[in-house]
Design goal:
It contains no helices and 12 strands. It is mostly beta strands. The protein is globular, with a radius of gyration of 15 Å. The chain starts with 8 loop residues before the first strand and ends with a strand. The N terminus is likely disordered.
């Protein structure tokens, strides 16, 4: 069930539930990947959970990446918002990219009290040439605990 329009644009914005990802990859080859788990607190009833393992410090090899396919109906500047939660200091961040189609390298901090909250992320430019095309948006695992949970993403156009 998709209550956030499953990555389709609406009113100059794009929303996606984190469980509606395109694919996951394991660049380090250690078998760790993001997983989907049921969560009564999540918007659609499920959440994306980072794998346990070692803390990932960049530069270096990513441990686990998840890719979302986004499609924008209008060119412009979009601010990313993440509905996420952590449960302690070892589960309160993940990596986001600085652009579409590139691996994430920017640390995003989230709560560590077990409560979902909306966090403001980076801004992204969508050109006229990118409108109507599929853009990859990648998230990377950072923390050692398997408790970092991502519920949803919203990209909202910034008024000019």
């Amino acid at each position: 069930m998709c209550s956030l329009e499953c990555g389709r644009p609406f009113s100059g914005s794009v929303a996606i539930e984190s469980s509606d990802f395109a694919y996951v990859v394991d660049p380090s080859g250690d078998g760790d990947n993001w997983t989907v788990e049921s969560s009564s607190d999540a918007i659609g009833g499920s959440t994306l959970v980072a794998p346990a393992g070692s803390l990932v410090n960049l530069p270096g090899t990513h441990d686990a990446l998840v890719t979302f396919n986004l499609n924008f109906s209008e060119a412009g500047t979009y601010t990313a918002y993440y509905r996420a939660r952590g449960f302690n200091g070892s589960s309160n961040s993940f990596y986001t990219p600085t652009d579409f189609g590139v691996d994430p390298d920017t640390q995003e901090s989230i709560s560590n009290d077990g409560v979902y909250g909306w966090e403001t992320g980076l801004t992204y430019e969508v050109s006229n040439a990118e409108v109507g095309t599929t853009l990859d948006f990648r998230i990377g695992k950072r923390e050692a605990d398997a408790d970092a949970e991502l519920d949803a993403f919203v990209f909202i156009s910034t008024p000019t």
